[in-house]
Write a structure and sequence with these properties.
5-stranded parallel beta sheet; alpha/beta; 7 strands; about 50% helix; globular; Helicase, Ruva Protein, domain 3
Length: about 450
Amino acid sequence: MPLFDLPEEKAMPQSMPLAARMRPQTLDQFVGQEHLVAEGRVFRKCIEADQLPSMVLWGPPGSGKTTLAYIIASVTRAQFSPLSAVSAGVADLRRVMGEAGKRLKLSGQRTILFVDEIHRFNKAQQDAVLPFVENGTVTFIGATTENPSFEVIAPLLSRSRVFRLNPLSDDQVRLIVEAAIKDEERGLGKLHIGLNEEALRHLVAMSDGDARVALNALEMATSATSPDAEGVRSIDLPAIEEALQHRALLYDKTGDQHHDVISALHKSLRGSDPDASLYWLGRMLEAGEDPLFIARRLVRFASEDVGVADPQALVIAMAAQQAVHFVGFPEGNLALAEAVVYLAAAPKSNSLYKAYSRVRQDIQDGRNEPVPLHLRNPVTGLMRRMGYGKGYEYAHDHPGHFVKQQNLPPSLRGKRYYIPGDQGYEKEIADRLKKWWGEDKG
């Protein structure tokens, strides 16, 4: 089933959504993704030369995946056949493939198959595409918001180039919004929009890099705002908040508030205060902070401030990160809340952090010592004759699977990097090390 009609030069009807009307028609109009579409980039050269490989466009919503498909459709000499994975089935695929085969045989014209939301195709549907990609009947372009390593079958993925699209920056979203306000042909220029700076900043911040979200909210706020006596539609912060269904909290994702609130969360966790930790977590999430940014900070905290006092802390933090990635926003918020409570209530230790700091300092100070011969692997006869592996004792051959031997370079003999604390599991570690090593590591 067609996803969209190919773009035409004629003016777009005002009944179309603003985001559709403002869709760029050329690469020069395209905003963002400079790593792909800037002059001289391979991706752009492929489009301009009409020599496209099969590919997967992977990126968040509103980053320009479908827009790039429109642009390719407008410049290619190939037949462009779009399908939506939401509504298309195997029968639709067979029809497109059959037509592509006939077209190639009769006229030599290539076919580009574009599948939007390819991650919604099951294995059987993706398998149906594969032989036609393999024999060159079609050039495949898939678009997805999901990691293609998990959502696209390996044989199809191995025959495709993956191009990663990034979320638009705030400056790029602002540029798109301002263009829509000024454009009299495709945008809202004839409606004389007056969007104050506070409202514009909130609109840009809350769109979270998704141009479609920003334009849809702008269009809704415009429709809900009546012109004044001079014909100007003055859109303020409350109008944008209502259009976004999101209140403007005192939080700037790139400014001081961003750093202050994440610092408050980190220090509340370190202070073993689950209530304060939950509050600061909520402040960030409700203001639109990227949940994956928070998840990454929790993973860092688990190693830095809990460490092996509770090894399960890192497992919980990583599980929260995976849950957020898997279920998204807002469902993933509870996974973050669960991790925050666990980390706040966990025993604390910075022994691991201090241990690695000592290691890093020694290495940076130039102590790049050679590996002792007995620890080297004697994989050849020459290495054995040079003494590689000589004197090494295999721990599993000894009682308790432990043998007391020197594993550091001679110049670092007796050096202590990891000194376990007295909290949680580290107490058990300290006792075990003392039993094995005596006063050397006790």
